[in-house]
């Protein structure tokens, strides 16, 4: 119980030192992997490997060329299983990330098309009403 309290105290005292590093690492990793997925228009394990490698190299760059290479390999080694796990979990849901993205794009396109067509119909009705009103005024 004493060791547990000591661990909890040290976590409270020094936890903030690691929290910003973990948050920054996760943010950069997600930005790179999402950017690659959007740019390439597909989600693959290589996107996660590249994101892990880039982030690992970035965090170990201050250690020189050896640190950069070590961070690259360490990040890639952890990016591959993380990417495989995420892709497998999305596969279990019945819809891959690519299918979800395509479906959402199609739904948004259909929604905007329906909205545009309804606005076009309103414009046509207003135009006909205006023509009828002008025609009625000319006859008087």
TrEMBL record:
Keywords: Membrane, Transmembrane, Transmembrane helix. This is Complex I assembly factor TIMMDC1, mitochondrial. GO terms for cellular component: membrane; mitochondrion. Belongs to the Tim17/Tim22/Tim23 family. The keyword Membrane applies. It comes from Manacus vitellinus. Chaperone protein involved in the assembly of the mitochondrial NADH:ubiquinone oxidoreductase complex (complex I). Participates in constructing the membrane arm of complex I. InterPro entries: TIMMDC1 (IPR055299). It comes from the Eukaryota. It is a multi-pass membrane protein. The chain crosses the membrane at residues 20-39, 68-93. One of its GO terms (biological process) is mitochondrial respiratory chain complex I assembly. The lineage of its organism: Eukaryota, Metazoa, Chordata, Craniata, Vertebrata. It is found in: Membrane.
């Amino acid at each position: 119980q004493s060791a547990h309290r000591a661990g909890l105290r040290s976590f409270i005292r020094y936890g903030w030192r690691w929290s910003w590093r973990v948050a920054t690492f996760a943010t950069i990793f997600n930005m790179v992997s999402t950017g690659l997925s959007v740019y390439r228009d597909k989600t693959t394990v290589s996107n996660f490997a590249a994101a892990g490698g880039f982030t690992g190299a970035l965090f170990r760059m201050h250690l020189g060329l050896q640190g950069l290479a070590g961070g690259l390999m360490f990040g890639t080694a952890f990016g591959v299983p993380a990417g495989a796990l995420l892709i497998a979990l999305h596969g279990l849901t019945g819809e891959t990330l690519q299918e979800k993205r395509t479906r959402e794009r199609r739904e948004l396109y259909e929604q905007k098309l329906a909205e545009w067509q309804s606005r076009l119909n309103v414009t046509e009705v207003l135009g006909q009403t205006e023509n009828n009103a002008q025609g009625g005024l000319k006859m008087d």
